[in-house]
Amino acid sequence: MYVKWKIQGKLFFSFDGTRQAVRDPMFSSAKLVSELDLSKGVASILLDKEEAIVGNYSCEVTESNREGETTVELRNSTVVSCGEENISTPEENCGSWFLPVESACIIVLLFLAIIFCWAQLSVIASKFETVLHKKISIIIACGIFTIVAVVGVILFVPDGYTPGSRAGLGLIVVPTVILLPLQYLLFGMVLDSLSKTAYALIGLESLGYITAVAGFALCVSACPVLHGSIVIAGLAIMAIGALLSLVYVCFVGSRIRDHQPPRKAVEEPLNDAKGVMLERCVTKEKN
């Protein structure tokens, strides 16, 4: 087994299988951590602090007809206090978490779902007679969900893999569960008993929520994100479900309105009947 250590491409240490050799007097303290561990793939070396130069080090290992090379970077770190070092954190090294397009899709789909929910409430309030306290309860729930979503977006928008951005994504995805009972209540205000279509739409939104939460769980621990498309797909399913629910509510409302008899058409026959009865009474009195 042969080992070669280089700095900036310049050889300074080698091992030919039997003997360690220092090729550069500037690294006279260089030695393998353990020759016995070479067979395990460990070819690390030790250097005195004074000889350890900041830069890129490369290690080439040759065994029989196999070769491998690894590059590591040596940095200076400043001690802030005992046991602590001023080193860059994984969040700082990660850079961008989501692509700008992915972030935009997540935000747009979230607000589309919210808009469709408010639109359903508006349609129901204008076309159906419902109990006032139910309307107020749903308005409060929609308002709270909207506020939480706005806070989540504010935290999520700043780029980078930070605790704030992760908390923002959590506030975007997790509270969308509120849409499921809200959808059930909205259908309950329109229908005497929920139809198969209503249950199917609620099931579709539930599937979207489960997908979005699964994507969030996969994204929150990875940078750069690898499963952002799962979060987007889940929110897209929820937005589509909310849109279809809005269409269904409008359809039910128009059907009920078409089948409801006009008030004038009902009142006129009643008035005619009253007139006939009065005429008969007057005729009898004259006779």
**Uncertain parts:** 79-93, 262-268
SSE run:
EEEEEEEEEHHHHHHHH
Main sheet attributes: strand count, strand direction, barrel closure: 5 strands, antiparallel
Instruction: Name the quaternary structure.
Output: single chain
* Main structural class: alpha+beta
Could you tell me the number of beta strands?
Answer: 9
User: Outline, from the CA principal axes?
Assistant: rod-shaped
The helix fraction, in percent, is: 55-70%
Keyword list:
rod-shaped, 287 residues, 5-stranded antiparallel beta sheet, alpha+beta
Walkthrough of the structure:
With 287 residues, this protein is of the alpha+beta class. The protein is built from 8 helices and 9 strands. The strands form 3 sheets. It has a 5-stranded antiparallel sheet, with no helix packed on it. A hairpin with a 2-residue loop joins strand 6 (55-63) and strand 7. Helix 2 (100-127) runs parallel beside helix 5, helix 2 packs parallel to helix 7 (228-259) and helix 6 (196-219) packs antiparallel against helix 7 (228-259). The protein starts with a strand and ends with a helix.
